[in-house]
Write a structure and sequence with these properties.
2 copies of one chain form a homodimer. Helix content of chain A is 39%, strand content 23%. Chain A has 231 residues and is α+β, with helices and mostly antiparallel strands. The structure holds a DNA duplex (30 and 30 nucleotides).
Chain lengths: 231, 231
Amino acid sequence: MPETINTATCSTCMFKSLIFQKLEKEELDYMDQFKVEKKYKKGEIVVVEGAQIKEFLYLKNGLVKLFKTGIDLKDHIISIAKPFDFIGFLSVFSKNQYQYSITCIEDSVICFVDMDSLKNVIKENGKFALDILSKMSLTLDDILSTRIDLCSRNLRGRISLLLLFFANDVYHNDSFKLPLTRKEIAGLIEMTTENVIRILSEFRKDGLIHIDGSTIQLTNKKLLEAISTAG
Amino acid sequence: MPETINTATCSTCMFKSLIFQKLEKEELDYMDQFKVEKKYKKGEIVVVEGAQIKEFLYLKNGLVKLFKTGIDLKDHIISIAKPFDFIGFLSVFSKNQYQYSITCIEDSVICFVDMDSLKNVIKENGKFALDILSKMSLTLDDILSTRIDLCSRNLRGRISLLLLFFANDVYHNDSFKLPLTRKEIAGLIEMTTENVIRILSEFRKDGLIHIDGSTIQLTNKKLLEAISTAG
DNA sequence: CGCGGCTTTGATGTTCATCAAGTAAAGTGG
DNA sequence: CCACTTTACTTGATGAACATCAAAGCCGCG
């Protein structure tokens, strides 16, 4: 059960994104009335594919994954979202139902902004609208590139890519605790659990990484990068 | 060489999309000054990955493909756009360069709207902004679903899907002329040219389709649908 | 005509998924 | 707290799906 918390107002929010900074104080105060913040534990579900969209979601803290269930009944990753990302983004302006699911892969804090009030602000503030458009465009570009990257790489390349992603983009550290099970990783990058394990072992034997439980340390990033590009 | 043509004003444009219909006459007249229409022949290139984005592109007529070149140096489809689609959509609000290429797979007419003027209109008209957001959101949903569909299907499933797409969504006819070479199809759906050919032959032998040069007729749609869902 | 690109088919090989089986770890109820 | 169940992890063997390679026919075009 996510715990509802109540922190600062929007106008004093530490996590106010670049985009929301463009709003006037009165606009922020307006939205303030229509937002709720919730705390989730690792593994908890935020939204399920098909659920009604009522709020605009903003990830303040933690790590979540967006995914869709394919006709093969497997989960397919759309993206892994980091703090400051708008996570209920993708169908929010066009559909009434979520077209994908979101679950937390780390403890997370998510801000729920009422959709209708947000739309009101957009209607009144064209610059804000442009910024939302821009952010949306960026997100989309990112997701698409990642997907195409995945499709053009073999299994080794995909694992390298994922490891480098966690080290460089998420944890900013060559040593980190994998927040996902092997099975989840498999879903993320379109392969089987067994092969995830096999290739991680392979990388360990080849001295590319060091594994200690769920902690992974990248010991030869150059080579990992080479594999991710060559694959 | 695309031929520049000059047709009606925006406000009387037959192809005015649902979205542009929400603009006031004066807004349309304003944009009118900043638009150019161009006629392309099948096979011609509209934009190349990396080119500067200066205009917002609107497909009035024809059929184009959006694709990105992967690290495997193969082309990967993003989508096939039909008339009334905004085709220069994906990075237009966030980047200065196109993140993908566009070429015509049929003779096409494309309307080029100056990006800065469009942004001006968006800034002034919040409802229009919301509509653009909505359209963008829809497009994105579509592209993502298609990609995930592709990833969760085997080769036979993908070919079925593509054939059904052309018959149902593009030509609205069970018999049509394939506008793409086998090689291009391969790029579209992440497989090799040889396998495209092999599976098409297979479908022909099994009586699912009838092939006459580049004309294809779907003779057993039920089964094709079954294959596309099962695969 | 002859060159290059598209198409087609067959033979071969690699990559990867599936199946099976066993160990370890983690949660569950008495 | 311990037996019990479940879930995660690991490794090997096997086979299917698919890519690659090779060769030949076809067609448009300078």
